[in-house]
Amino acid sequence: MKNSEEKLILWMDDAMSPPEAAEFEKSLADLRAARADKEAWQKVRDGFKSHSTIPPAYDRDAEFLKSQISRAVRDELRVSAPRKIRPLPSIARLVWSGVGLCACAALMSVIVIRHNDGVPDESAFISQVIEAHSSNPSRYGTYSFTSPDGRGTVIWLDNPGFIPAQESIR
Amino acid sequence: MSSGEAPCDADLVKAAAGGDASAFETLVDRHQKRVYMISFQMLRNHEDTLDVVQDAFIRAWRGMAGFDGQASFASWISRIATNASIDVIRRRQVRPQSEIDVGEIHPDPASRTTPSTPANPDSQIDMDEIRRRYDAALLLLSAEHRAVLVLKELQDQSYQEIAETVGCSVGAVMSRLFYARKKMQSELKDIYEEL
């Protein structure tokens, strides 16, 4: 059920069916005044429409406005873009990494062992040093040994201040 | 959609919802002027209108993923712009009328709706004065009354569309229209009686 305001609006906008309009007009106390009011509003509406045009300033600023919107949108897009998250390594990848590391370690060991094949056992020199060590503090503890590959090795013990000349030239 | 044919709004909306900024820019290009008009007719201030239009489109971009597509993009963005304009009017209700930018509201001579006026300086002064009176009368209305008046009389929206845009019942729209029209008529009585 429409109230009187709603009916009046529909009547002024010519939005009623002819029977509805006729019935509404019958219900009005002063139909002449209502019609004058309707006509007055139509004049106001026409003036309202004709004075509500787009300002020239819009044409001046339209491109600027569009670029501002585009920039804001692209900024938002950049800020809200989800960061690429690196996934956790799979079990298979972990297993293959372990196998690779083991293989590398084995390879390195083989290389090192082969490299050291021609070198005499270091403990042989150390035992010679220990055996040759004199407990006599008056004696300079300087000894020399020859390694199996022919190179001379000087072991300087007991912190002497110098190497005796006959030893150093050997 | 065949190649060379402009994509429809629905396709652009779908692309924009997926993060396609170019598709959204095409939508802006299509609807910017109409959105500007709706806001300007309510605010009567060019600078405020630029802010509202920008804000409306950015809000639309942010809400694009949630746009269900039941209404057209045109009516959706109109609704956003109308409500943003209502917010601005409410905020500036305390602002003196003298601050309203009447210098910016001269009609575009090329506009279809501009009345054809003779190039007579006196006549131009009259037109400017009448325009100022209309603006002043409109600015006296509350945000809600102004919105329904603009959407009905200038945007030719139906009562139902207005109700959906401003978020009230059809009865409330009619009631607001009734009071808005009465107010405009009383403020402009001397003008229309001379017509």
Overall geometry of chain A: rod-shaped
| Helix-strand category of chain A | mainly alpha
**C-alpha-based Rg of chain B, rounded:** 19 Å
- Give the percentage of residues in beta strands of chain B: under 5%
Name of the CATH architecture of the largest domain in chain B: Orthogonal Bundle
Biggest beta sheet attributes of chain A: 2 strands, antiparallel
Mean pLDDT of chain B: 82
Strand order of the largest sheet of chain A: 1-2
Hey, roughly how much beta strand do the residues of chain A contain? 5-15%
Describe the protein's topology.
The complex is a heterodimer of chains A (about 170) and B (about 200).
Chain A: H1 4-12, H2 18-27, H3 31-50, H4 56-80, H5 91-115, H6 122-132, E1 142-146, E2 152-156, H7 165-168
Antiparallel strand pairs in A: 1-2
Chain B: H1 9-17, H2 21-43, H3 46-62, H4 73-91, H5 121-139, H6 143-154, H7 159-166, H8 170-187, H9 189-194
What keyword list fits this structure?
heterodimer, A: 170 residues, mainly alpha, two-stranded antiparallel sheet, 7 helices, 61% helix, B: 195 residues, Arc Repressor Mutant, subunit A, 2 domains
